[in-house]
């Protein structure tokens, strides 16, 4: 999930949507396709996990709280691609 607008304003270190907006995005998309959230801040990782995104991109340095929120749903951290 990225907000529209300036490409450089799109940062996984920023929370760009409210909880209600995330709920609406994921509820519509999960009917048709998996949802990947680019989230890095601890609160944002927990928010996107709770709405049920498929993957949390850039969510490095997971804490017990973040991992528990993801474990309570089907969200996961995909392995990074190394070239």
Describe this structure in words.
- The structure is a single chain.
- The protein is built from three helices and two strands, in the order αβαβα.
- With about 80 residues, it is mainly α.
- It has a domain at about 35-75.
- A two-stranded parallel sheet has the order 1-2.
- Strand 1, helix 2 and strand 2 form a beta-alpha-beta unit.
- The chain is globular and about 30 Å long.
- The model has no long low-confidence stretch (mean pLDDT about 75).
Number of strands: 2
Shape: globular
Terminal Cα span: 25 Å
Specify Rg, calculated over alpha carbons: 12 Å
Oligomer kind: single chain
Query: Which regions are unreliable across 5 or more consecutive residues at pLDDT < 50?
Result: none
Give the H and E element order: HEHEH
Query: Roughly how much helix do the residues carry, as a percent range?
Result: 25-40%
The overall average pLDDT, rounded, is: 77
Coarse structural class: mainly alpha
DSSP helix count? Answer: 3
How much of the sequence lies in strands comes to 5-15%
Widest sheet: strand order?
A: 1-2
Task: Describe the main β-sheet briefly.
Answer: 2 strands, parallel
């Amino acid at each position: 999930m990225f907000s529209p607008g300036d490409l450089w304003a799109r940062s996984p270190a920023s929370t760009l949507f409210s909880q209600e907006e995330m709920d609406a995005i994921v509820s519509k998309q999960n009917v048709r396709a998996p949802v990947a959230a680019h989230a890095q801040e601890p609160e944002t990782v927990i928010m996107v996990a709770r709405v049920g995104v498929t993957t949390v991109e850039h969510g490095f340095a997971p804490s017990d709280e973040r991992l528990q929120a993801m474990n309570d749903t089907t969200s996961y951290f995909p392995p990074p691609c190394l070239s």
